[in-house]
Amino acid sequence: MLNLILLGPPGAGKGTQALAIAGSLGLHRLSTGDLLRRHIRRESQLGAQARVFYDKGEYVPDCLVVAMVKEEITSFLPENGMVLDGFPRTVAQAEALERMLTEIGKRIDTVIEIDSDTEEIVRRAEGRRVCPEGHTYHMVKNPPRSGGRCDVDGLPLQQRVDDQPDTVRKRITVYHERTKPLLTYYAAKGLIQRVDGTQSIEEVTESIQHVLSNVGVR
Ligand code: AP5
Ligand code: MG
Q: Domains in the chain, start-ordered, CATH in brackets?
């Protein structure tokens, strides 16, 4: 059982690494970004409320995101544990998560901060293409095998609306303002481990695996 949080600025590689780690350790991956994109695509009530914030690169209000995650966690009850990608992002979300997990007798084991720098983040966002199920590619650094379609499910790849350079810069600013206090919050609990996200995809995965073996989780 391992419950792991991946934190980091937009484009640091949280989604890419969450898929790799969840796959290799048999964990459930929970990405609030992917869940929100699904709601927006399906034009649900939550999707309509979230879109106003999402399209501008702002955080969706805590109450909406927490309710969405609660529904996901209680419907899945992931037995082997989970990788949380992009949640929590605020101290209020972290406190809500702690209450949810306590209710089902679980806790967070470790929090990994994947760090990157602004220019690299903007380059990654420009080249990123995603499939509707959240599989992620980079047209130069991690291209799909068959042109514009996902290797896993064959669905067409698209650019995210929030990957325009101005919106990416906005998302970086929001991260610094809203999520940096969360790093302090988890550091005070002794849970934070840092990984250099400017390395290659494979090197970042190795660094995360190294951290996990060092903290004795696996
Ligand atoms: P979300 O979808 O979570 O976006 P994000 O945090 O901005 O992060 P990204 O998904 O952009 O980047 P990533 O770190 O996953 O990197 P990736 O692996 O794709 O959230 C989007 C929006 O939803 C938010 O702005 C907000 O509005 C809302 N939201 C979501 N959660 C919320 C919450 N909890 N509270 C409130 N609002 C919330 O990699 C990026 C690219 O780089 C890819 O092309 C990839 O192939 C490539 N790449 C990855 N790693 C490497 C590497 N090491 N070297 C080279 N290329 C790499
Ligand atoms: Mg992501």
A: 2-117+180-213 (3.40.50.300)
